[in-house]
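User: Okay, second chain of the day. Same drill as before: sequence in, structure tokens out.
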Amino acid sequence: MKRQPSIDIVRGIVMIIMALDHVRDLMHINSLAQSPTDLSTTTPWLFFTRWITYLCAPTFVFLAGTSVYLSLQKNSLAETRTFLFKRGFWLLLLEFTIFNFGLYFDIGFHTLLFEVIATIGFGFIVLGLLLKIPSRILGITGLCILIFHNLLPFIVVSQNLKLNSVLTSFISPFGTPFGNPLLGRVFIMAYPPVQWLGIMLVGFASGKFFELEAEKRKKLFVKIGYSALALFVAIRFLNIYGDPIKWSLQKDPVFTFLSFINVTKYPPSLLFCLLNLGIMFLLLAFAEQFHNTIKKITLVYGKVPLFYFIVHFYVIHILTLVLLFAQGFSWLQFDFVAGTFGRSRNIQSGLPLWGIYFVWIFVVTILYKPCQWFGKYKAENKYWWLKYI
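Assistant: Same drill. Structure tokens below.
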């Protein structure tokens, strides 16, 4: 099958949005002390700045599964499986080396973060083991995970506490010390892999939809997207199941609405998945009808997702250090060990929210040409290592 432009367009859109969240994480004046989704302290603008980026991770993981299905139509099962194993372990290695260093700039690696790259790598390895199973069965399995996983923390699998602890680590975020206690190293499971595997399996099964004629596919995606959003509204309104955080009446209608859409990402709840995957399906439905300028720009980023993902973190972090120097901090005041990106928790630093948007636009703009160059280089060359970047 030929490459699907809508996949690259939507992936490019969420990659552009993703940079906004990472600039906010590293550079916002209150990012070290304030949660942007805490309704007691946030503002609507700050809340939205974080909330809109919820779309990114589930779209990445879903489309990763879809891309595997499309690859399987061009290559043998054995070739696809081998590639998934290699790619999966490569992504795990990248997560704990290149990416973790780019995020923290800590040569001692005091914080190891299991995030979206690692969870995609884990998903690839598991999916590689399951390729002989019909895609419909894998899709149903993924849907069952998404629908029922909010019940998992309440199920006692075994009387063995250690076994329960191991199983829980695959479904719930946690942090745990590792190595020499004197060094203060910590491993953080931010993306428990089971729920994200569910999204990948659904994405894999949905790859079959891309075999449909374009207009039929568009109509189907519109139906799926609106149905997912309608289910979100209905289940969220009942306030019984689907997310550990209940919505409630707030001080005004705006904050009540924010409470209604304030869903849980860690781990991704059923309502989180319905809301964000519903929006993703609508974007896929209309992607190829976007203005040519939008398609041209987003395709550049969407064709080189891993390259962009890694490089943009280094660019943002370097700009963070430049900002700290400009604000009068010396190198001795930088703290890379505490997981605060070089910033000190005890001294205020960073930019107001309007400045975050300015830096975000700057970062995305300066990465356009490098992404365009690498996309062209990748298309014109067939070196084996290009498959892994």
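The longest strand covers residues 111-114.

User: Thanks, on to the next one.
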